[in-house]
From TrEMBL:
PROSITE patterns found in the cross-reference section: ATPASE_DELTA
Subcellular location, principal: membrane
Keyword Ion transport carried by entry: yes
SUPFAM superfamilies: N-terminal domain of the delta subunit of the F1F0-ATP synthase (SSF47928)
Name of the featured protein: ATP synthase subunit 5, mitochondrial
Compartments, record wording: Membrane
UniProt cross-references to InterPro entries, sorted A to Z: ATP_synth_OSCP/delta_N_sf (IPR026015), ATPase_OSCP/d_CS (IPR020781), ATPase_OSCP/dsu (IPR000711)
Species per Swiss-Prot/TrEMBL record: Sporothrix epigloea
Coiled-coil blocks: none
Entry's family note: Belongs to the ATPase delta chain family.
Protein keywords: ATP synthesis, Hydrogen ion transport, Ion transport, Membrane, Transport
Length: 213
């Protein structure tokens, strides 16, 4: 069980480094949110709580997506110690994770270091670690209108055989709708983007016309 004590940013980094000696994260993450996500991942692996931790982080991410005000509250710089403690307690209660010491310690660490506003970003980075550990590669297909399963299936088959994915990897496909692209598709696989949208073609054409004037 992780000891519940005051943790400074330096100690978080030290804790992550110590954990990394025994547990190697599947991918390297950068930024402060990446540091926290990596520390949480290694701690969860060491305490054999990776699955419940992943489920709780997913639930917290969904909670933030549904409640825009919550994100603003977490980012408030003037929160008192009592406020932060109450917020952590409520987050644990809402996600039914009060009995999970790994998640509890993680949220307390964010609160003590005035980093609760990073929760959404850390959750997203943590999801990246989980996907990488499971050999998954996320493919986000953005279209002006929702795509049917047949079209998504054909795209998945085509991309799965390409060098974008890599041998032994699994694709996790998500279709996002954005009318602003006008038509066509924007395909994001890992850190690569294939922009086949009408809006991109229009922008390219406009640039060519502007350059020629």
């Amino acid at each position: 069980m992780l000891a519940a004590r005051r943790t400074t940013p330096a100690l978080v980094r030290g804790y992550a480094a110590a954990a990394a000696k025994e547990v190697k994260p599947p991918i390297a993450l950068f930024g402060l949110d990446g540091t926290y996500a990596t520390a949480l991942y290694t701690a969860a692996v060491k305490t054999s709580t990776l699955d419940p931790t992943a489920k709780t982080l997913s639930a917290l991410s969904a909670l933030l997506s549904k409640d825009a005000k919550l994100g603003s509250i977490l980012s408030t710089p003037t929160l008192s110690s009592a406020d932060k403690s109450a917020i952590v307690t409520e987050l644990l209660k809402t996600t039914n994770s009060a009995s999970q010491p790994t998640v509890s310690h993680f949220l307390q660490t964010l609160a003590e270091n005035n980093r609760l506003g990073l929760l959404g970003d850390v959750a997203a980075k943590f999801s990246e670690l989980i996907r990488a550990a499971n050999g998954e590669v996320e493919m986000i297909v953005t279209s002006a209108q929702s795509l049917d399963n047949r079209t998504l299936g054909r795209l998945e088959t085509a991309i799965a055989k390409s060098a974008f994915v890599g041998q032994g990897k699994k694709l996790k496909v998500t279709n996002k709708v954005n009318p602003d692209i006008l038509g066509g598709l924007v395909v994001e696989v890992g850190d690569r983007t294939i922009d086949l949208s009408v809006s991109a073609k229009v922008a390219k054409l406009n640039k060519m016309l502007t350059d020629s004037l």
